């Protein structure tokens, strides 16, 4: 189920996917903590299984990159 063609990934595969795309070491435990706090990438529960839709992971990455770029842009304007 965790191949590159799957539209939804289990937590371990989702963490590996995020790590590969972002270059930060994500773990299934981190994703679990985010789920518990209702933050992070979108996820769903099917039966007893937690799944992360790949488009949601890509959107999460894009949103995080925009946020970092905006923060950097704002900090450049405040430098003395």
Helix/strand layout:
Elements: E1 8-9, H1 11-22, H2 28-37, E2 44-46, E3 49-53, H3 54-78
Antiparallel strand pairs: 1-3, 2-3
Helix pairs in contact: 1-2, 1-3
Quick recap of the structure?
This protein has 80 residues and is α+β, with helices and mostly antiparallel strands. The protein is 59% helix and 12% strand.
Description:
The chain has helices at 11-22, 28-37, 54-78, and strands at 8-9, 44-46, 49-53. The protein has 80 residues and is an alpha+beta fold. It has one domain (8-78). Strands 1-3-2 form a three-stranded antiparallel beta sheet. Strand 2 (44-46) and strand 3 (49-53) form a beta hairpin. The termini are far apart. The model has no long low-confidence stretch (mean pLDDT 88).
Give the number of helices. Answer: 3
Instruction: Kindly name the structural category.
Output: alpha+beta
Straight-line distance between termini: 52 Å
Mean pLDDT: 88
List unreliable stretches of 5+ residues.
Answer: none
Helical coverage, percent range: 55-70%
Global outline: elongated
């Amino acid at each position: 189920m965790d191949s590159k063609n799957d539209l939804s990934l289990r937590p371990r595969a989702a963490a590996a996917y995020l790590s590969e795309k972002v270059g930060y070491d994500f773990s299934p435990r981190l994703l679990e903590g985010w789920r518990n706090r209702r933050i992070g990438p979108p996820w769903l529960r099917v039966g007893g299984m937690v799944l992360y839709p790949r488009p949601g992971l890509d959107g999460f990455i894009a949103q995080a990159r925009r946020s970092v770029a905006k923060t950097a842009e704002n900090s450049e304007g405040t430098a003395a």
